[in-house]
């Protein structure tokens, strides 16, 4: 039984019971240190998506972000790179939010276990209830509940441009710790590839909706060099739309 099927079967059991059974708890959304304080409101976003006749992910892409098809395009590129053909049995996602990448990931592969680390409690609860994923206690940048070398695919999308440098950097160490030999680490960061002078001007004049921590940049070379010290090689990279501009998706593979 995969994560999505399991989710349907536990739908009625309620988030609390599920969490109690699995021994995990969700920490409320007040501890996302230094990042965007609150993710988009749960109830209002769900209502708006329903009114538009769209899935919540497609609503966020098309209506809220003005980038229709953006999530699917990243998933398509990851498929082309063979990320799902590797048949990941364990997936871990940091900051899944509404689950727009999570839902599409579960259409591409059938992991036995899908762990999430998410600070926004209403969204985490919704993802547990809808997709049967496991919400791990989330504090700062720790993946402590996840054992070393236990995850086939570790991912984060549109998270590391909303948190501070230290929050992202600490997560990098943790992602490298939990990935298994031969597994992949996928995340996007706003690198210098995405920051030519014209784009910086665009961000300065049109971007950043009132959050000091968004969008945060991260040097590409820093990521590549750091992950190399963990035995993780950059396998591929591509640019994906974000807000008024873009981020760069980096795909690392951990040596066997
Ligand atoms: C911009 S949203 C992106 C959500 C989702 N990945 C997407 O692309 O739609 C950033 C997400 O990271 C979560 N977040 C913020 N700080 C976090 C932290 N320290 N650990 C885990 N999640 C965090 C937020 O609650 C939110 O869900």
UniProtKB/TrEMBL annotation:
Gene3D superfamilies: Vaccinia Virus protein VP39 (3.40.50.150). Keywords: Methyltransferase, Transferase. SUPFAM superfamilies: S-adenosyl-L-methionine-dependent methyltransferases. It comes from the Bacteria. It holds the Pfam family Methyltransf_11. InterPro entries: Methyltransf_11, SAM-dependent_MTases_sf. Residues 92-187 form the Methyltransferase type domain. One of its GO terms (molecular function) is S-adenosylmethionine-dependent methyltransferase activity. Coiled coil: none annotated. GO terms for biological process: methylation. This is Methyltransferase domain-containing protein. The lineage of its organism: Bacteria, Bacillati, Actinomycetota, Actinomycetes, Kitasatosporales.
């Amino acid at each position: 039984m995969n994560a999505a099927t399991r989710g349907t079967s536990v739908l009625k059991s309620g988030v609390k019971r599920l969490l109690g059974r699995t021994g995990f708890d969700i920490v409320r959304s007040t501890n996302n240190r230094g990042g965007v304080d609150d993710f988009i409101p749960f109830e209002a976003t769900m209502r708006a998506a329903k009114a538009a006749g769209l899935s919540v992910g497609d609503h966020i892409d098309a209506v809220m972000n003005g980038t229709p098809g953006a999530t699917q395009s990243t998933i398509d590129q990851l498929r082309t790179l063979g990320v799902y053909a590797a048949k990941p049995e364990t997936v871990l996602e940091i900051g899944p939010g509404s689950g727009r990448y999570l839902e599409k990931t579960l259409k591409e592969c059938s992991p036995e276990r899908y762990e999430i680390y998410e600070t926004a409690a209403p969204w985490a609860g919704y993802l547990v209830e809808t997709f049967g994923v496991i919400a791990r206690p989330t504090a700062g940048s720790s993946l402590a509940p996840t054992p070393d070398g236990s995850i086939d695919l570790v991912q984060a999308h549109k998270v590391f441009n909303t948190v501070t440098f230290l929050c992202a950097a600490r997560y990098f160490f943790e992602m490298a710790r939990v990935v298994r030999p031969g597994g992949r680490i996928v995340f996007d960061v706003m690198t210098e590839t995405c920051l030519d002078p014209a784009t910086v001007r665009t961000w300065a004049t049109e971007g950043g909706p009132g959050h000091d921590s968004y969008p945060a940049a991260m040097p590409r070379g820093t990521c590549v060099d750091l992950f190399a010290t963990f035995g993780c090689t950059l396998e591929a990279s591509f640019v994906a739309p974000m807000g008024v501009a873009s981020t760069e998706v980096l795909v690392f593979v951990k040596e066997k």
